[in-house]
Design a protein that fits this description.
globular; 2 strands; mainly alpha; two-stranded antiparallel sheet; 5 helices; 175 residues
């Protein structure tokens, strides 16, 4: 019988095809996906827009996680955002329509963005990591490695907020 996998993705070893310098980014994104999927597997769609004490809703975080990851990867490729990406950005502001499959759909979208990120990491030439890149309309200066690192950091920050808010709104719905 094989030994159980460690809970932390980074302790499972290098991911095939991902350059060594980008392993931490890949590990963080996979960890976020696993934790998000587990935490929201039975999350009630009726609670997606709840904002106790004015915090951002679970629905906002779900949309924002996927959208920002997509946009940051676009900047890392030195590409301009598309009209579709701008539309997604403007749609991140809840309230979301409450539908039975809303949570699964949003979790699946984040998972797809993680898959796209992993594919991009696998094809990123490490010789380009220090190359300059502009971020946003103002083209704030960064680098490929800076953007990719921020993608992982931003994802983990919003995941933490999402996890706390999800527990909070669930606890309030039991009262």
């Amino acid at each position: 019988m094989p030994a159980p996998q460690p809970l932390e993705v980074w302790l499972r070893g290098p991911l095939p095809g991902v350059p060594a310098l980008l392993q931490p980014v890949a590990h963080a994104l996979l960890q976020a996906r696993e934790e998000l999927t587990a935490a929201l597997h039975d999350f009630p769609p009726a609670l997606l827009n709840e904002r106790p004490a004015g915090v951002a809703s679970v629905g906002f975080h779900l949309q924002h996680l996927a959208g920002v990851l997509n946009r940051l990867l676009t900047y890392a490729r030195a590409e301009a955002l598309t009209d579709s990406q701008f539309a997604d950005f403007h749609a991140e502001v809840p309230p979301l329509p409450i539908e039975p499959e809303a949570v699964q759909r949003l979790v699946a979208r984040f998972s797809q963005e993680v898959d796209a990120a992993l594919a991009q990491l696998q094809t990123t030439d490490v010789a380009t990591l220090a190359e300059g890149r502009g971020v946003g309309r103002a083209q704030v200066p960064s680098t490929v490695i800076g953007i990719l690192t921020h993608a992982a950091e931003h994802t983990t920050r919003h995941l933490g907020q999402l996890l706390v808010t999800a527990k909070w709104v669930r606890s309030l719905s039991l009262v």
